[in-house]
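Need a sequence for this fold. Nothing fancy.
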């Protein structure tokens, strides 16, 4: 009895909400009901993500990886594999500093980014940068690289 009352109330409320949204849509004040629901979902999801500090937001290193490594590996690896590798790289590079960070970024390959115009000149891949690339399953760019400090 209680379940059927809750179910009946829910269906009645959903119908009323749909009717109101449909009426507003017909008057030209709103888009379709689907668009209204999608906007509400998106707004709620974005608000929840902002409140959750553990939610991953892609950073500049992800964009660099996707541009340099993604362009180089397009057609060789699936897009999902490239995305996962670049997300791993973006999350882990914050733990590197200085020269290790720079060589890890250069090992992705040449980029169209003006700040990384020197990535094709040649560099020495440090052990820490090499470990990061292996962990994220990124094959270093082979243009003028030499491995230093690993055994």
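Here you go.
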């Amino acid at each position: 009895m209680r379940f059927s009352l809750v179910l009946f109330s829910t269906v009645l409320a959903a119908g009323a909400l749909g009717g109101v949204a449909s009426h507003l849509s017909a008057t030209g004040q709103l888009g379709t009901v689907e668009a209204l629901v999608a906007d509400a979902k998106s707004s709620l999801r974005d608000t929840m993500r902002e409140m959750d500090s553990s939610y991953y937001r892609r950073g500049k290193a992800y964009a660099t990886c996707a541009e340099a490594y993604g362009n180089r590996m397009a057609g060789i690896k699936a897009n999902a594999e490239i995305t996962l590798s670049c997300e791993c790289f973006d999350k882990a590079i914050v733990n590197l500093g200085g020269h290790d960070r720079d060589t890890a970024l250069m090992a992705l390959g040449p980029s169209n980014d003006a700040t990384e115009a020197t990535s094709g000149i040649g560099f020495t891949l440090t052990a820490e940068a090499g470990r990061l690339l292996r962990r994220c399953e990124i094959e270093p760019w082979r243009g003028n690289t030499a491995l230093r400090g690993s055994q």
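For context: The chain has a mean pLDDT of 77.
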